[in-house]
Specification:
Length: 99
Amino acid sequence: MTGVPAYVLRYWESEFKLLRPKKNPAGQRVYRRRDVDLVVRIKTLLYEERLTLEGAKKRLLAESRRAEQLSLGLREVNYASALRRIRDRLTALRTRLTS
């Protein structure tokens, strides 16, 4: 699928902590879509962008942190919205109780 030889994939698994395909009961590696996408990304970083292994590791780490921050940002927006709704309801309830 990716054009990367099996022995290179095994080596990348030892070098890149993010690349951890599951194994079936027979011990064969089962690559998920996420794993395949990561292999393609590593291949691009190493072969096209000509980064070293260390450079590729740092780039992947930075990209994964950015993705985490984006997902946290979306959650914060959802939490802030929910908290505003709760505050508005409590304010309305307090107004009704004091009148």
